[in-house]
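User: Please fill in residues for this 449-position structure.
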């Protein structure tokens, strides 16, 4: 009996414990249900409030935008030539072109056709837009400005400098001499009129007379002081005198020789005169076609130092064939694009990715702010954040490419200081060719109204 009563008591206690535990679980469940209910209720209210602001945000409205858009330049294959296509090579100028005059003897003739590059743009990189938004789509007109400064490399090729760069658009005479191409130089000289050679020689004598002492220097025959003497015509066999019309000729007959060397200025004064005779071929029974042009070319290439060749090459540009100087500070571009955008808004977020595609025009400036319009397109994507129904901020990236053949014509150029070349030799314009694109980031704000 006692054992049965004990079991019954234990059973009653167990049932009571289970009831208490069930009540506790029910209480906890009720509390949790209440919390969940309150949370859901608050979430529903928040969603309702957010939905209202989202609807307000997605409603049709105008907006304006302002952004900072640093960019990395992708300017490839930059080349510049004068408009008629006579440029044989491009040479950099020693200096940044700040002086109003460009001297003929300050070009780096050791560096033909240098690679012309441009820096990235991190400062003058601004953009603005005005657009109309409806639902998740936007249509906008965007105006942007980028300026890519030129890289002016020092002669060592290692030090980068800031500022403008000046380049000489050199023609055949200057290029052939600077590159030691004697045969090409001889052919080019043979096409030059005699009076132009005379003008060149006068300029050389007034600026660098010691160079003239190395050109058309007559040679001595047998013995000493038996030099040929310049004249209007080469004497046959030179038995009666040592007169010659050939540049750098050798003396033959001692009794009628010159006791001193004749040089370039003597050749010009006595043989060429006003330039109407003995160029490019000397006068005489044994003269050969273009013999004087060939002789002058040989002396210039073989007898001059590189520095002296640079002086003569510059004088060729200044006095005979002309030479254009292009001053380049930067490639700047103002773009006007028509963009179509889409904002990928979520249901419960004020942060939304966006993507845009646009087409329009870039107004590209290269030399002296001369503007060339070009067709272009732009792609951009990023993330926007709605701060209020009226204000949003955004950050993203973009790619901008200019279309077309990459030809930029009618670029104004400068003349060398004291250019004496015949009228029309130095052209007034140049043509640049290059492909251009740029990519970067954009960080800005939009204001709805």
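Assistant: Residues filled in for all 449 positions:
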């Amino acid at each position: 009996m006692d054992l049965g009563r004990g079991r019954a008591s234990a059973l009653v206690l167990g049932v009571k414990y289970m009831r208490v535990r069930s009540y506790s679980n029910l209480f906890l469940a009720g509390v949790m249900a209440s919390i969940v209910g309150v949370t859901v209720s608050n979430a529903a209210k928040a969603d309702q409030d957010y939905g209202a602001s989202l609807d307000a945000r997605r409603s049709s409205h105008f907006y304006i935008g302002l952004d900072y858009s640093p960019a990395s330049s992708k300017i490839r294959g930059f080349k510049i030539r004068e408009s008629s296509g006579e440029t044989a090579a491009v040479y950099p100028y020693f200096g940044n072109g700040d002086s109003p005059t460009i001297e003929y003897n300050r070009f780096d003739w050791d560096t033909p056709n240098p690679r012309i590059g441009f820096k990235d743009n991190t400062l003058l990189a601004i953009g603005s837009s005005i657009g109309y938004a409806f639902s998740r789509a936007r249509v906008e007109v965007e105006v942007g400005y980028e300026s890519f400064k030129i890289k002016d490399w020092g002669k060592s090729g290692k030090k980068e400098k800031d500022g403008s760069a000046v380049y000489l658009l050199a023609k055949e005479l200057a290029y052939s001499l600077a590159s030691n191409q004697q045969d090409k130089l001889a052919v080019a000289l043979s096409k030059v009129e005699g009076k132009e050679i005379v003008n060149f020689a006068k300029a050389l004598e007034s600026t660098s007379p010691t160079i003239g002492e190395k050109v058309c220097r007559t040679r001595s025959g047998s013995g000493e002081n038996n030099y040929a003497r310049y004249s209007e015509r080469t004497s046959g066999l030179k038995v009666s005198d040592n007169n010659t019309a050939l540049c750098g000729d050798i003396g033959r007959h001692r009794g009628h020789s010159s006791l001193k060397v004749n040089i370039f200025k003597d050749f010009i004064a006595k043989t060429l005169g006003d330039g109407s005779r003995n160029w490019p071929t000397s006068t005489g029974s044994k003269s050969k076609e273009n013999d004087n042009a060939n002789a002058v070319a040989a002396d210039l290439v073989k007898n001059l130092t590189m520095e002296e060749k640079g002086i003569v090459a510059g004088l060729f540009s200044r006095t005979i064939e002309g030479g254009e100087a292009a001053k380049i500070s930067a490639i700047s571009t103002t773009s006007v694009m028509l963009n179509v955008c889409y904002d990928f808004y979520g249901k419960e977020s004020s942060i939304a990715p966006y993507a845009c595609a646009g087409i329009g025009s870039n107004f590209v400036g290269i030399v002296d702010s001369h503007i060339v319009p070009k067709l272009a397109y732009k792609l951009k994507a990023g993330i926007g954040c709605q701060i209020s129904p009226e204000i949003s901020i955004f950050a993203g990236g973009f790619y901008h490419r200019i279309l077309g053949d990459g030809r930029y014509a009618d670029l104004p150029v400068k003349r060398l200081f004291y250019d004496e070349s015949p009228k029309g030799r130095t052209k007034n314009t140049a043509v640049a060719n290059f492909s251009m694109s740029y990519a970067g980031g954009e960080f800005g704000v939009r204001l709805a109204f």
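For context: DSSP finds eight helices and 18 strands in the chain.
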